[in-house]
Amino acid sequence: MENLVNFAVDAAFWRGRRVFLTGHTGFKGGWLSLWLQTLGAQVTGFALAPQALSLFRLGRVERGMQSIIANVQDGVALQDALSSSGAEVVIHMAAQPLVRQGYAEPVETYATNVMGTVHLLQAVRATASVRAVVVVTTDKCYENREWAWGYRENDALGGRDPYSNSKACAELVAQSFRDSFFPVERFADHRVAIATARAGNVIGGGDWAANRLVPDFLRAAEGGDVLELRYPHAVRPWQHVLEPLAGYLRLLQRLVELGPEVSGAWNFGPTDDGLQTVGEVVRQLASCWPESVNVRYGDGQPSAHETSVLRLDSSKARANLGWLPRWTLERALRNTADWHLAHRRGNCMDAVTRQQIAQYTTAPVTELSAARTLHATSLT
Predict the structure, then answer these.
(1) Over the stretch 353-366, which tens digit does the pLDDT of each residue have?
(2) Euclidean distance between the first and final Cα of the chain, in Å?
(3) What CA–CA distance (Å, rounded) separates 175 from 265?
(4) Among 112, 181, 327, 358, which is 20 to 30 Å from 336 by CA?
(5) Model pTM?
(6) For residue 151, what are the β-bridge partners?
(7) Which residues of 216-245 are buried (b: 16+ CB within 10 A; e: fewer)?
């Protein structure tokens, strides 16, 4: 068993390794692209053009990688790009990631999230260099029963809304391709290991997506608008974007090293510290912001696309991958606010982002472990 407190991403493993990353122009993709660059990986990205205001543009992410602007719905272009990259490791993050947009554009949501995954895995079949694939989905892929405990990887898939359901479908697509074309019993022949990764609500600098809590807070704070909280008592698993990304990197390494022993589904969610209500997250974030924010609280009734409780059980990743969240929610929110305040001051966001990655990777002891130790000591 690895020391969970001292777990770190293995820089030696990633140095010089060829990586193919879909969705690299998005929020999570931008952070992961910069992290892989700092590790010395040779990264090829495949995604739609970035938004005008984005981490990808502000962080000048494109400078350290090959960036291909295209749509994962174009299977021919995707296969050509993957084959040309010579990648050994594939991370599929391209997606339509918003619940509300899924309601407005269900056909496009399924086309991207389901058929995009089909095209990616079909391209893997045609690319001899690939050894490990992680398909990133979401915690919302589970059939939500409003349980008080966390969902485990063997719980039923579902999804009431088009976005969540499309991600559950992507999970089934990955399972089907694994069982049909990359079966465990024939691993010696194909040498490809496939896993899926499910994470909770991620926060961090550089996210300006619509209808997300932290970006909505920042828009209200900077524009003087009222922040509307439709369902302030909803409990969500919040974590900094670097937390699940560290899990993805660890999972990919173990897929290369151990093959089918670690294939399948994996949860990467926060500890209880990160299980907080929407209202509490806003309260903590407001304490990190220099100006006051006007908040209007809803009646507490969930809308058609919202659930009251959503938790993940990530004990499998902690026991078998040595993965453990490092930052408290307070630290994650503080770093998010600091990132956007640095942007407001006109700082170099490439340097700011890389500095936060370095802070995360060099912490000798997890804050969460230290906090738990302190809490236990105070009770004795």
Answers:
(1) 999 999 999 864 44
(2) 28
(3) 9
(4) 112
(5) 0.93
(6) 312
(7) bbbebbeeeeebebbbbbbbbbbbbbbbbb
The structure tokens 């984005």 sit at 54
CA distance 11 to 234: 38
Q: What is the pLDDT of residue 309?
A: 75
Q: pLDDT band at 2, cuts 50/70/90?
A: very low
- One-letter amino acid of 260: P
Residue whose tokens read 């600098």: 205
Strands 235-240 and 275-277: antiparallel
Specify whether the CB–CB gap between 194 and 180 falls below 8 A. no
Per DSSP, the residues of 185-240 read: GGHHHH--EEEEEEE-EEE-TT---TT-HHHHHHHHHHHTPEEEES-TT-EEEEEE
- Beta bridge partner(s), residue 236: 276
Q: Which helix (H) or strand (E) holds 43?
A: strand 42-47
Distance CA 37, CA 22 (A): 15
Q: What angle do CA 183, 189, 194 make, to 5 degrees?
A: 40
Q: Which two tokens stand for residue 362?
A: 């060099």
- Give 148's pLDDT tier (boundaries 50, 70, 90): confident
